[in-house]
Design a protein that fits this description.
Subcellular location: Cell membrane
CATH class: Mainly Alpha
CATH topology: Arp2/3 complex 21 kDa subunit ARPC3
GO molecular function, one term: biotin transmembrane transporter activity
Transmembrane segments: 34-52, 59-77, 83-104, 116-137, 149-176
Helix content: over 70%
Pfam families: BioY
Protein name: Biotin transporter
Largest sheet: 2 strands, antiparallel
């Protein structure tokens, strides 16, 4: 996959925004692990709505790689051992959600607040599904700290899913206004070139 300079710059910008979102957080202390409600999801949504599947997914992967090499850009730090934290699945969920949101957004015939809610909700379900499955598997089979599905769903999903849905609605409102600008920045040069 070859990216142009402006595409690389855009991916780097969104990776940085997702990192900033990790520090805008509310900690929710729970018996097993502290959950973090952050603004990361907002910027993942914006990437999915504005950049398409390729650039949105790349932005999240860049962010994950930065954190896994040791730069503390995750809500609870960074480093390669972060993979073995049950909550890392929600970060993986960002990448999968960004891809699906990008795919759906690219296929929309008409883009408005109502239609953008479709990829937003699909992304939310994907993000939480990947996160919950990873949380359950790591907790039960690696950390050896048994946790039931009801605990995972109630304590580690339902507690933050409504605020994240609110972020979906906010991101949709912003994306509707920003899509023409971002599209012009990413595609304007090529359009002018073809017209010449």
């Amino acid at each position: 996959m070859k990216l142009q300079t402006k595409e690389l710059t855009t991916c780097a910008l969104f990776a940085a925004l997702i990192a900033v979102g990790a520090f805008l957080k509310i900690d929710i202390p729970l018996p097993m692990y502290t959950m973090h409600f952050t603004l990361q999801w907002f910027f993942v949504l914006m990437a999915g709505f504005l950049l398409g599947k390729k650039l949105a997914t790349t932005s999240v992967i860049v962010y994950l790689c930065i954190g896994l090499v040791g730069i503390p850009v995750f809500a609870a730090g960074g480093g390669p051992t972060y993979i073995f934290r049950p909550g890392f699945g929600f970060l993986l969920g960002f990448a999968v959600a960004a891809f699906f949101m990008g795919v759906i957004t690219e296929k929309l015939k008409k883009v408005n607040a109502a239609t953008l809610m479709i990829p937003g909700v699909v992304g939310l379900i994907t993000y939480y599904s990947v996160g919950a499955i990873y949380f359950y598997l790591i907790s039960n089979f690696y950390v050896k700290s048994p946790v039931s599905w009801p605990v995972v769903i109630v304590d580690y999903c339902l507690i933050t899913v409504f605020p994240d849905f609110i972020l979906c609605m906010l991101a949709v409102a912003f994306a509707v206004k920003l899509r023409p600008v971002v599209s012009h920045l990413l595609n304007g040069y090529e359009s002018r070139k073809k017209a010449m």
